[in-house]
Amino acid sequence: MSAVKGIWKGYERYDFTVNGREALVVSPKEAAPGNPWVWRAEFFDAFSQVDMALLEQGWHLAYCNVSDMYGSPEAIELMHPFHLHVCSTFGLAEKPSIFGFSRGGLYAVNYALKYPESVSSLYLDAPVLDLRSWPGGNGKADQYKKEWEECLQTYRLTEEQFAQFRESPLDRVAELAALQIPVILVVGDADEDVPFLDNGHPFAERFAANGGEIEVIVKPGVAHHPHSLDDPTPVAEFIQRVFYSESETESIGAEWDIMSANAAKRIVFLGDSITDDGTYISYLDAFFRQHFAEQPYTFINLGVSSETASGLSEPDHPFPRPCIHERLERALSESRPDWTVICYGMNDGIYYPFSEERFAAYRDGMDRLIEAVRATGSKVIVMTPPPFDAPSLSGATLLPEGEEKYSYLTPFTRYDDVLERYAEWVLGLEAAVDAVIAIREPLLHYIAERKKLQFRLPLRRRHSSRCRRPLGHCTGAP
Predict the structure, then answer these.
(1) Mean of per-residue pLDDT scores for the chain
(2) Distance from the first to the final alpha carbon of the chain
(3) DSSP-derived 3-state class of residue 195
(4) What does DSSP say about strands 21-27 and 11-18: parallel, antiparallel, or unpaired?
(5) What dihedral angle (degrees, nearest 10) is formed by the CA atoms of 197, 198, 201, 204?
(6) Which helix (DSSP H) or strand (DSSP E) does residue 375 occupy?
(7) Cis (ω within 30 of 0) for the bond into 135?
(8) Residue 478 pLDDT more than 50?
(9) Measured between alpha carbons, how far is 122 from 113 in angstroms, rounded to an integer?
C-alpha cells in the first residue's frame, strides 16, 4: 500500500489504496499537537470551507472511496481498515472528526455506531439520516429511483424486507447519544432533496432528548446546496474543542490513574496562587468523582498566593513573598498526604529576565521540597510551571530587557522564556519523583487556538474559572 506523493492546493497529498479502495491523506504544513484529522466520509473537496480551515490550523484531511454503498454494513467494514492504516502509517490520532455531507451522513453515523472508540466528533451537513426519506421517497421528498435500487442492493434487501428495516441512523439515535460522541449539525430549512423535517430535525430532537451533545445551525431559506458555511469558524471551533477536551481528559486520566493503583486517600496540593485559587483542583475533583467513585479521596488545597519555592522576592513586591519552606513541616504533619502535588515556578523568577542565580535558587528550593515530602512517605507529583501569556495582562506594564527593576506589575516582556527553562528542568525530574505532569505545551496550544478563533482569554490576575483546562488556569497568575 505504497503512497504516491503529490500536491493538492499547496499541501502534500498522498494517494494509495486500502483493500482495493482508493484513498488519500492531505498533510498540513505543520501538524497540530496530537495529529488530529478530518475524515471526509463522502464527497471529498466539496464545499470544503471547514476542511480547509482545519487544514490551515494543522489538521490532516483523509478520504476513502466507498461511494454508492449508502453506509451499509459492508461499507463500514471497508472503512475500518482504512482508519487503521492511516493511524499507523501516518501517525494520525485514533479519533478523527468524521464529516458526513448529504448521504455521507449515513457513513459517518453508522461508523460511529460500530466503532465509537474511533470517533471524536461528527459534523453532519444536510445529512441523510433516514433511508425511508432519501432515497426511498417516503416523506416530503420524491423517490430517487436509481439510488433507491442501489441502496436496496447494497443492503441486500427487497422492497418488502425494507418495510421492516430499522437500521437507519434515525432509528438508532438513542444508541448514538449514549456513546457520548458530540455532533454539530448544519442544515438548510428549505432543503427539498433531503428534507430537514424528515432527517436533521427529528434526529436533533431525539439526540438531545437522550442526553447527547449536539449543536444545530439552521440556514434560513437555504436548500440542499450549498453545504457548509461561508464562515467556517463555528464548526471548526466545535470540532477542535471536542478533540482537545477529549485529549486532555485521556491524558489526565493516564497521569492520575497511578493514584488509583496506589489507593491514595489524601491528596495535598502545594503551590502559589494558581493552586490557591482552586480551579484546577475542582476540575480534578469532578474527574475523580466520575472515574474513581469507588475510592474515597480527600483533596487538600494548601496553596498560598504569591508563594515561591526559591525564597526570592522582587524589591517592589508589597511584602516579601512567602516561601513554602517556611511552613512546610507543619503543612505536611497536619495534612498527612498519601500524595503531594507540587506546582511552583510562576513567581520564582520574580518576573525578571533569566539569571543563573535565580534559576539555581529555584532548583535548590524544589529539590529540598521534594526531599522533605518524600521523607514523610508521601508520593510526589510535580507539575511544570504554566506559561506566562503577556498579551492577556491587564493593569500591568511590560518592560524590555535592561531595566533596573521588574515586578509582577511591571514584568519582563519575555518572562515566558524564563518559565520555559524552568519547565524544561522540571521535566527532567521524572527519575526523582513519581510523576511529572507537563501542562505547559497543552496550555500554550490552547491559548494559540483561542486567539485564532478570536476568543478573549480570561485575565490572568482574576483567576477566572472559565478555562476548560483541568490542570491550571489558561495562563499563569502571580
Answers:
(1) 88
(2) 54
(3) coil
(4) antiparallel
(5) 180
(6) helix 356-375
(7) yes
(8) no
(9) 11
* Cα distances (Å, whole numbers) of residue 232 to 98, 108, 221, 380: 16, 20, 19, 44
Cell of 77: 467494514
Going by C-alpha positions, the residue among 344, 348, 351, 370 that lies closest to residue 359 is: 348
For residues 65 and 190, is the Cβ–Cβ distance under 8 A? no
Beta-bridge mates of residue 339: 267, 379
Look up the pTM and report it.
0.58
Distance separating alpha carbons of residues 400 and 409, to the nearest angstrom? 13
CA distance 362 to 415: 15
Question: CA triplet 128, 133, 138: central angle to 5 degrees?
Answer: 175
CA dist., res. 250 & res. 470, Å (int): 11
- What is the spatial distance between Cα 339 and Cα 336, in angstroms, rounded to a whole number? 9
DSSP-assigned states of every residue in 60-95: EEEEE--TTSTT-HHHHHHHHHHHHHHHHHH---SS
Residue given cell 524564563 in the structure block: 418
pLDDT in tens, 138-194: 989 899 999 999 999 999 999 999 999 999 999 999 999 999 999 999 999 999 999
Grid cell digits, residue 343: 506546582
Residue 30 has pLDDT above 60, yes or no: yes
Length in residues, the chain: 478
What's the rounded Cα separation, in Å, for the pair 47 and 100?
12
**Residue 56: pLDDT above 50?**
yes
Pair 129, 169: CB distance under 8 Å: yes
C-alpha cell read off for 72? 451499509
pLDDT at 228: 96
CB of 241 within 8 A of CB of 421? no
What's phi and psi for 436, nearest 5 deg? Answer: -120, 130
Contacts of 152 (CB under 8 A, 6+ apart): 158, 159, 162
**Contact at 8 Å (CB) between 452 and 393?**
no
Rounded Cα gap, residues 137 and 141, in angstroms: 5
Cβ contacts of 12 within 8 Å, gap of 6 or more: 5, 6, 26, 27
Q: Is the pLDDT of residue 296 over 80?
A: no
Show the beta-strand stretches assigned E in 220-370.
266-271, 298-301, 339-343
Given this model, what pLDDT does residue 246 score?
A: 65
Longest dimension (CA), the chain: 87
